[in-house]
Structure formats: C-alpha cells, structure tokens
C-alpha cells in the first residue's frame, strides 16, 4: 500500500462504513456472519485516530431491515449519517421521521440479483418518488454488468443515486468498460454520485483505472470516498490506515481530495 503521508489532506468524511453487534442477529440469507462486534464506539475511535470528523453508516444486508442499532447511533452522534434498508411500501411519514434523525438514504443491495424490480411500476415507482420528496437518495450496490440496463431506470425516477464501490467493476475488460461507461453517464446527468470505496476488494489496476476515469470524466464533485470498515471478510488483510493509503494512491492530489470531501459534506450533511 502507498504511504498515507504521500498527501497532506486526510479525509474529512468517511462515506461508507458498517457498525454492528452480534446481538442484532443475522438475516437468514446473510452471506457472511462476522464472529466479532464493530460497535459505534469503535468506529468513532477509528475515525478519531485518523483525523476524520464525519462518518456515513451504510446499511448492511447481513442484518436485513433491522435498523435499530444504526438509528440509536444517529440519535447519539451528530457527526454521523446513515442509510437504512426499508420495504418499498414505506410511507412518506416514516421516511420524513427517519430523515429527521439523520437518515440520508435507502440502500438497495442488488449485487447478487439476476432480475430486478420494475422501477416504473408500484411499489417502487411510488417509493422512489417519496424518497426524492423527502430529500433522500438511493444507495445502490449492484454488479457492474447490470448497470448499463439498471441505471437509466433510476434516472427516469428522479431520485438521487449514490453508486457503491466503484460500481462493482467486472474483471472482464469489456464488461468493466460498459459498466463504468454507464456510471459515468449517470454522473454526468447531474443526479448521481459514485463511491470510491472497498477498492481493496478488487485488483489494484482495476481500482486505478476506474478512479482515473471518474476523476477525469466526471470530476471530484461526483465522487465520495469510503473506508468500508470493518472490512468484512478482509479483517486480517487490511486496516483503516491501509484504506486511507489506497485513497491517497488513487487520488494523489490533496486539493482534489479536499473537493471530494466538500462533495461528501454537501451530499450527506447539509
């Protein structure tokens, strides 16, 4: 990994992390079952240790739609925001109440799906409209191969979109290019952002390729950075400092990183 000292600007916002305890109980279809806790106190300690002032908790599919622990963390810590997992029938009053507590969006974890819901029909049509009306975004985790077909459906809905983990780029070059092209089209339309998060989960050349394209073709105003703490399934291979080092390698210019921070502050904290 590159040395974090390679640039002067430490991230101000970690836009993607998970908090949990085993007492929450795993969803029946959880793809991983960590044998440890990563409570909010530990996450805040990690932020403090690296000079990061704000954090955004991403809803984890491992726990289904159990959002209680995340909501309690938001109530206790003004420096945090979060996405949650909700059923598409959720009404506007519930969404407004969640927004008042610091929920900024709803996470759709569709990475392992083969067929996707029809976003132009109920219940998703109304759900996306209600999210937009409440100032929330959709946080989308989906495989890169699906993005050329999936992202235009969100553009038609009017809701803001944050694409997770570089758009989960394929390791196959043509498929990766098509997926990245789709992300860039969404970014350039002005209602979407991409997270350069979890770069350690892919080969370094792919992370470098995608980050370079996002920066050159969309710019830092469409990018946010996230650590993906606590690095589920990678706990013995990576630490928080490594994720910052990788960020500095992907975005070596300190001023560009400041602009990415400004994007995250505006997107999640204003």
> What are the low-pLDDT stretches, counting only 5+ consecutive residues below 50?
1-7
| SS element count, helices | 9
Strand content: 5-15%
Give the ordered list of helices and strands.
EHEHEHEHEHEHEHEHH
How far the N terminus sits from the C terminus, by CA atoms, comes to 33 Å
Arithmetic mean of pLDDT: 92
Shape: globular
- Kindly state the percentage of residues in helix: 25-40%
SS elements, strand count = 8
* Largest beta-sheet characterization: 8 strands, parallel
Q: Largest beta sheet: what is the strand line-up?
A: 1-2-3-4-5-6-7-8
Instruction: Quickly give the structural class.
Output: alpha/beta
Radius of gyration, rounded? 17 Å
Task: Offer a concise description of the structure.
With 270 residues, the protein is of the alpha/beta class. It is 39% helix and 15% strand.
Helices and strands in order:
Layout: E1 13-17, H1 40-49, E2 54-57, H2 68-76, E3 80-84, H3 92-100, E4 103-109, H4 124-133, E5 137-141, H5 147-157, E6 160-163, H6 173-188, E7 192-197, H7 204-217, E8 223-226, H8 240-250, H9 254-269
Parallel strand pairs: 1-2, 2-3, 3-4, 4-5, 5-6, 6-7, 7-8
Helix pairs in contact: 5-6
């Amino acid at each position: 990994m590159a040395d974090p000292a390679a640039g002067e600007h430490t991230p101000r916002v970690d836009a993607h992390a998970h908090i949990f305890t085993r007492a929450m109980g795993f969803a029946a279809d959880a793809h991983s079952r960590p044998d440890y806790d990563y409570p909010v106190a530990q996450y805040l300690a990690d932020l403090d240790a690296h000079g990061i002032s704000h954090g955004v908790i991403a809803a984890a599919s491992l726990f289904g739609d159990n959002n209680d622990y995340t909501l309690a963390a938001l109530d206790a810590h003004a420096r945090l925001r979060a996405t949650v997992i909700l059923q598409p029938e959720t009404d506007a009053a519930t969404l407004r109440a969640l927004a008042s507590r610091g929920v900024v969006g709803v996470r759709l974890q569709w990475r392992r799906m083969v067929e996707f819901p029809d976003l132009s029909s109920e219940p998703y049509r109304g759900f996306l409209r209600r999210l937009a009306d409440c100032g929330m975004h959709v946080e989308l985790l989906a495989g890169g191969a699906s993005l050329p077909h999936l992202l235009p459906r969100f553009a038609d809905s009017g809701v803001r979109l944050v694409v997770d983990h570089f758009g989960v780029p394929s390791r196959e070059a043509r498929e990766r290019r098509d997926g990245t092209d789709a992300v860039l089209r969404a970014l350039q339309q002005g209602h979407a952002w991409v997270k350069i998060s979890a770069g350690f989960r892919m080969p370094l050349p792919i992370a470098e390729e995608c980050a370079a394209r996002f920066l050159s073709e969309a710019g830092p105003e469409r990018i946010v950075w996230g650590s993906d703490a606590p690095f589920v399934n990678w706990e013995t291979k990576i630490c928080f400092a490594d994720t910052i080092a990788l960020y500095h390698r992907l975005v070596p210019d300190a001023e560009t990183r400041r602009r990415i921070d400004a994007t995250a502050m505006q997107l999640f904290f204003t």
